[in-house]
Amino acid sequence: MRTLHLAKGRDAATRRRHPWLFSGAVAREEGSSPDGVVDARDASGAFLARGFASPAAPIVARFWTFEDRPLDADFVAGRVRDAVDLRGRVVPPETDGYRVVNAEGDFLPGLVVDRFGEVLVVQSTTEGTARARPLWLPPLLEAFPGATVVQKNNLSSRKGEGLPLDDELLAGDASPRRAAFREHGLSFVAEVFAGQKTGFFLDQRENRHLVRSLAAGRSLLNLFSYSGAFGVAALAGGAARVAHVDVSGAALELARENHRRNGQPVEGAESRVETREADVFDDLRARVASGERWDFIVTDPPAFAKRKADVDKACRGYKDINRLAFQLLAPGGLLLACSCSGRISSDLFQKVIFAAALDARRPARLLERRGAGPDHPVSIDCPEGDYLKAFLLEAP
C-alpha cells in the first residue's frame, strides 16, 4: 500500500472528510501501489482516509472512503448503484438525459457520467479514476445493459497528469457522433465528441423548465445560446419569439436542429426563431444602441473564472453582460443570469448582478436563486462542487 504521511497540523481538512489532498500537506510517502490506491495517515501514523493517487497533480489524492476498508469491486459497485438509484428518484418523467454520476457529489471523486438516451458519456478526470476503471465500469454496464459507453479524454486535468487525451469507446459497437435524448418531453441531441463538456449542458435542465413555465407570450433573447435549449423550452411554453446569439456557427446549427426536432420551424413565415453568429458583447451593445426591448433574457456564458487569478476579470465580464441585458429588458421583464464559474461564489455573483442593475439604472428584484438539478448532487463535505448559479430577476 502506498501511504502518504501528512505533516503535523495539516490534517484538518481530511478529518473534516474533504476528499481532496493537496501536495503541500504531505510530509513524506512510502510504499507503492500498482492499482493506484493510497492511504493517508496523520503525523502519528493514525489512519485518516483511503482513495486513489494522482502523483503528478497538485491534488495528489482523492479520497473515496474515510473508513479503513478495502477499495474493492463491491465497495465501488455499491457507490455506483447508489448513484443510479438516486436518479431513479429525482429525474423527472419523460427525461432520459441526466447526470448519472457527479464525482464528489456521489462520493466517486474524479468520475463524471452523463446519460443521453442509450449513450453514456464518461469523463475520468484523474489518474486515480483512470486506474479505477475496472471497478466502476462493470457496475455501470450492469445498470445500463446494452448502452454505448464513450469516454471523453480531452481534459485539462488529464493533460496536466500526462494521461492519454484520445477519446475511447468503452462499450458498444460504434462511437456515436451524436446522441438523442428527451428532457421534460422535449427532444434534443448531444454532440458527444465535438460538443462542450460531455456534449450538452444537463445541469441547466430544471432552469430551462423554469423558463418554459414563464415564457408564454414573451420574447426571449438567449445569449451564449450553444444548443439553443433555452429557446426550445421557451417556445414549448408559448413564447412569442426567441433569438439565439453565439459566436459559434456550429452551435447555432445545433440550435436550429433542436428546434426542428420539436416541430418548431426555423425558416419561413411560421418561424419564431432567429439565430445570430456574433460576439455576444458586441451584439448586445448594438441592440442597446438600436433601442431594442425584450421580455425575457437568459445570460449563460462559459466559465469566465477557471483560476483564482481570473476572478476579478470574470466579475467585470459578468457585470458588463448583465448590465447590457438590464438595459434591454422591457418593463416587467425577466432576467435569468447564470454563472458556471466555481471560483465565483453565490454571494459574489449576487453583488455583481446588483452592481450591473445599478449601472444600468434599472430597479430589480431577485425572485429566485437556483443551481443545478438534483441529478447534480453536492457533497456537504466538498462545497467546491456547487458551481452553477442561476438568479431569476425582474426589472419592473
How would you sum up this structure, described in words?
The protein is an alpha/beta fold. 29% of the residues lie in helices and 29% in strands. The chain has helices at 12-15, 73-90, 127-131, 133-143, 156-160, 205-214, 229-236, 249-261, 280-289, 311-328, 346-359; strands at 2-6, 20-22, 26-30, 37-41, 47-53, 59-65, 97-102, 111-116, 119-124, 148-151, 168-171, 178-183, 186-191, 219-223, 241-246, 273-277, 294-299, 329-339, 365-370, 389-395. Helix 2 (73-90) packs across helix 4 (133-143) and helix 9 runs parallel beside helix 10 (311-328). The radius of gyration is 22 Å and the shape is globular.
List the helices and strands and how they pair.
Blueprint: E1 2-6, H1 12-15, E2 20-22, E3 26-30, E4 37-41, E5 47-53, E6 59-65, H2 73-90, E7 97-102, E8 111-116, E9 119-124, H3 127-131, H4 133-143, E10 148-151, H5 156-160, E11 168-171, E12 178-183, E13 186-191, H6 205-214, E14 219-223, H7 229-236, E15 241-246, H8 249-261, E16 273-277, H9 280-289, E17 294-299, H10 311-328, E18 329-339, H11 346-359, E19 365-370, E20 389-395
Parallel strand pairs: 1-4, 9-10, 14-15, 14-17, 15-16, 17-18
Antiparallel strand pairs: 1-3, 2-6, 4-5, 5-6, 7-8, 8-9, 10-11, 12-13, 18-20, 19-20
Helix pairs in contact: 2-4, 6-7, 9-10, 10-11
Describe the structure using short key phrases.
396 residues, alpha/beta, six-stranded mixed β-sheet, 11 helices
